[in-house]
Amino acid sequence: MPVPRPPYRVAIIGTGGIAHAHAEALTQLSARAQLVAVADVDHTRAAEFAGRFSVPHVFGDPKDLLESQELDLVHICTPPQTHAPLACLAMRAGVTALVEKPTALSLRQLDELTAVQEQTGSRVLTVFQHRYGAAAVRLRRLVEAGALGRPLVATCETLWYRSDDYFEVPWRGRWDVEGGGPTMGHGIHQFDLMLSVLGPWSLITALADRRARSTDTEDVSVAAVRFGSGVLATVVNSLVSPRETSRLRFDFEYATVDLEHLYGYREEHWRFTPAPGHEGLAALWAGGDEPDVTSGHRLQIEAVFDAWDTGEEPGVSLLEARRTLEFAAATYASAFRGVPIAAGELTDDDPFTLSMDGGAVPWQRVKEALV
After folding, report:
1. Helices 188-198 and 318-337: crossing angle, nearest 10°?
2. pLDDT (tens digit, 9 = 90+) per residue, 121-173?
3. Which one-letter DSSP state was computed for residue 228?
4. Domain containing 171 — which CATH number?
5. Which regions in the chain score pLDDT beneath 50?
6. Closest CA to 32 of 87, 77, 72
7. Which of helix, strand or coil describes residue 245?
């Protein structure tokens, strides 16, 4: 009989809002993981966080945490600008980093992470927790088996609302700190799930604008997408939509599968509609005995531990994260250049490889011209 391994030793860097979701997930997985340390530049906030989640060690400097603790995994829950530097710090300390989205602020920065990963042998994983809900896993399995026929058309919508007050947080709505608007920071979860189902995209034609918020970044983007398989899709990312919803719809030859939720889904948020003559597929969609758990951080963290326990590579790897980040970069490049962008087109020193705004934001250039 196999000997149970000791719990994985885990730390969290950054103890703001999203860190609570990570800590609560780890609490639910307490038989498999021990949260041993946290770090935050705001020591008071870190101490309060540690008290709430019974964390024994508190640090003000992430470097001190990584040097003093024996860790299997560190969760990076800081503002986006710091994600890549902290992930590099973790890898050089020999620790796997689980990074909140976006993994990096640019494709160049993500490629630098890949270089450090190759040098150190440590790994960077990205938080895209919606990939791990039972229905999404089932859908990918059916698609891979060809049970639903060819995918034909898809719709992906992140229609959320963020008031002016939301952007009073200094790092929000800024290209240099957040990396972009809803395309980078909000809709990325939905179109990452879409990409995980439909595979590589090949061409994007997009628009982006500021419709209501006086941010540096866009508050709306719209894209028409062609996939390598020929699938056509539309993607809308918005922060100006009072009736908030997150929607995905996949139309296959033999069935339509659609999802509507907000920040996390369960089985009840999915709908399966077989095409006439293919009603028997409903039994395949009904699934097995998977627990009906909301598509949150716990499922992805649990999947990481499961992969480690069996000697497999956990998702979401830098290679997978790059495909999603390239989708965001191509959306901006197409919107601001006014031309379609092909997958792989943004290379080397292309301005949109170096930053998501590419130095070509229309309203920014107008502002600079008036100064």
Report:
1. 110
2. 999 999 999 999 999 999 999 999 999 999 999 999 999 999 999 999 988 99
3. T
4. 3.30.360.10
5. 1, 370-371
6. 72
7. strand
Vertex 323: Cα angle to 78 and 304 (nearest 5): 55
DSSP state of 263: S
CB 300 within 8 A of CB 321: no
Helices (runs of H) and strands (runs of E) counted in the chain: 13, 14
Task: List alpha helices for 278-317, DSSP H.
Answer: 281-285, 297-309
Q: Which amino acid is at 44?
A: T
Q: Are strands 57-59 and 341-342 parallel, antiparallel or unpaired?
A: unpaired
Residue 70: CATH number of its domain = 3.40.50.720
Residue pLDDT, tens place only, 295-327 = 999 999 999 999 999 999 999 999 999 999 999
Element (H, E) at 240: strand 240-252
Instruction: State the amino acid at position 121 in one-letter form.
Output: G
Question: What is the domain extent for residue 124?
Answer: 8-129+312-317
Number of domains in the chain: 2
d(CA 97, CA 205): 33
Report if residue 300 sits inside a domain.
no
Within a domain: 108? yes
From CA 69, how far away is CA 10, in angstroms rounded? 9
In a shared domain, residues 110 and 67: yes
Q: Which two tokens stand for residue 263?
A: 């920040």
Report DSSP state, residue 15.
-
Copy the structure tokens of residue 298.
Answer: 């716990």
Partners of residue 13 on adjacent β-strands = 39, 76
Q: pTM to 2 decimals?
A: 0.95
Residues 71, 115, single domain; the answer is yes
